[in-house]
Amino acid sequence: MTQAPLISNEDKKYRGAYFLNQYLLLLPGLVLFLLFFIFPMAVLFENSFHDFSRMSGIIPGLTFKNYIKILGDSYYLEICLRTIKLALMTSVTTLLIGYPVALYLVSASARKRAWIILFILSPLLVSVIVRTFGWLILLGSNGLLDNVGQAFGFQLGSMLHTQTVVIVGLANVLLPFMVLSITTSLQTIDPSVVKAATSLGANPWRVFTKVIFPLSLPGVFSGILIVFSLASSSFVTPALLGGSNFKVLSSVIYEQAMVLQNWPFAASFAVTLMVIVLGILALQRRAIEGGKYKVVFH
Amino acid sequence: MITTTVQRWLGAFALLVCIFSVSPVLVIVLESFTATDYITFPPQGYSFKWYLEFAKRSEFIDSAIVSLVVALVSCLISTLIGTLVAIAIDRKTFFGKSFIQALFMSPLSLPGLIFGLALLQFLAGNGLPRNIYTLTIAHIVLTTPFAIRFISVSMLGIDPNVEKAAKSLGANGLRTFWHVTLPLIRPGIAASLVFIFILSFDEVAASLFISSPNAMTLPVRIFVYIDQNYDPLVTSVSSLLVLAAAIALSIIEKTVGMGRLFGLK
Amino acid sequence: MANVELIHVTKKYGETAAVSDLSLSIAQGELVALLGPSGCGKTTTLQMLAGFTELTSGDILVNGKSIKNVPPHKRNIGVVFQSYALFPHLSVFDNVAFGLRMRNMNQVDIGAKVKRALDNVQLSALEDRYPKQMSGGQQQRVALARALVIEPEVLLLDEPLSNLDANLREQMRFEIREIQKRVGITTVFVTHDQSEAMAVADRLVVMSNGGIRQVGTARDIYQSPIDLFVTQFIGHANILNGKVLSSQNNITQVQLSTGDVVQMHNQHGFDANQPVVLALRPELLTITHQPVFGNNQLQGEIDRVNYLGDKINIGLNIDGMKLTAVIQSNQVNLSIGNTAFINWPVTDGVLFLDRA
Q1: Interface predicted TM-score (ipTM) of this complex, two decimals
Q2: pTM of this prediction?
């Protein structure tokens, strides 16, 4: 960044708290993060390169064995692909559901807006396990759908343990993030731009496709990114709604680490998951900076 | 921006989505009052028995206390550390600033699951136990970025000339900070405390790995229970979590407002 | 109450000088306006007076004592910021009381002083309000009261009126001047608005590029600008190019680019054949339908007439050379296309060497 800072370095001296030494300020945070964030991540990374046996535990000596197993074994590969597919479909679903809501949010009256914000955002304050369990009740045996179906004479039984249900649950949990992202983006659009487009002859549909939607793309992209990374690393929702046969990467991590005690293998899955998430981050950055909507993202 | 007919359709759709959004939570709270011994929705009968059952289960009560304590300590310490870091970032120059900023924000882009696993392996590798202390430390690491964010935003809103004005009126560095800066970041501190409390109270993924039989947070306890049982007890316990969320919601709405907390105008 | 001296004050940021070798004496009770375009160094000078920016070299004396190394909170200098910088979390009363509290004054005295300060700016009824409940003009007065209540040696005002709308600005500038005179406090007023500076200040300090171009009263600067920059910065001026034909006995003959020859009295230091510019204030020009003798005179055509209520702004074309004249609206009837004679007294106008 070459532009001048809003507050010059000289001016900073006259702000409150300047008397506090910056190293003292940062010390507690840095110590905490060094010891309990950086070191653990390093341990995780390093462990992923170790072999493991039930007899002797973690075997010293670095090896790529774990990664080879992940990429080579069709079982694990299938799980990786399933995770990515799940995350992708969840992103698309939340986009389709969330975009109209965001659109309504920016154009509604203040009162309506407050209510929508309340209903969409407040579930974020409730633990994911509670929200997911609610779907269990709705869609499981003797759940709402089942009972309603029985009233009409259908034996629906449990709707659970399918990919669709997991997507429904994940979309429900992650929808607020998509709505937030798109809404923030829509709010940056100057309403006069829309009026200008109309005065130049654009009908409402074209105003949307040629003006509003393109200008909201930053929010769309960042929403997709957030939902994708959260969905691909989600554990509770796939575990509860998908069941033990619907395994995703996080289920494997849990199983390997807590049940089988094979920490190195679990670690390698964790690293793989991180690579996927960071890979999407990088892809998005490339798309933003190189694509035709480059100027929108400035 | 939109025509009125489109607006009306959008409004109807938005209403449906709102119902979709809150339905699982609503369902849980309603179900907690069922008189049946099994889960069925809509609930049949109307009873407090599952709440009474909850009160009898010491493991759930213990977990509730653990969650409470961890959340309380986390929000206090995270907010404190977050404030110190936010001050350093906003007002000081130092070597490697952008790197340090990125470092402190990184738990946000890391799945809690992975952090939990990493911390677990780290603790075991260094002979450290899984207990309420390490659990709290995990929560503090996960929530500090939020504290930093909230306080930083608060600080950006301060007109720099206001602090210069205080100086011109005779306040030295310490007094300027105490009388002017601190009161002006109070909203950020309040938001940080409330939000981090509920974040910690709700946390599942990392806690799953760091919890131990003696120190298990409530969400983890629920998860473990669900693994083996499918009965309405979970719904009454979950309602406690919903209650906590409701209290947090009302505090947030009264102070800064949910929309503004999450960055909407 | 104090006098202030800036002695060879310089402020450098790296290699660039924001303020360069600036020296200025301000007398007790005087209101001096630092005036100039953005980037001229007026705000930097003010910041150095307040103590928020350190001098690279030079000194600042208040009542003969150097304050160069005194930190801002010890300087006892009142500052009114462009954004007013009121404490948003404190009421008007507490805002004004702040400086007194920092001086550990007792409650009773604080109460009395604050009330008197608010009376001075006509805001006593609003002492329990908060800044965000007040209009810009009211906030500005609170800022002023807050700065004055500590009875500072010097008052600094950093473009205090630029955030107000035009009408309020005009009203406030006179109020500020009145308060300043009543209290008798030495004041430095930074502004980029020259009519504001002229209306309010005892002396103007016209600055550009980190240095002072001219110091003087409004009249001095307007009528006898020291160079072309000052001429064009203060008020409007017609700039005519020409060449000196002769200059002796206090009379300089100049041939304009159109060929017309004009005489200027009281312009010294010119030699024949020097390229010069002649600066003429629009209101000094008289326009007639018939030639008039005794004055400098040009003949041309009217190509613009703007009726402005109390005056008329007229654009004239003399063989391609453009002039603007401003006359009272109750004068001659003039329309576009008319031939007109433009004349002005030989004692009016200023001549400068053309350094272009």
Answers
A1: 0.90
A2: 0.83
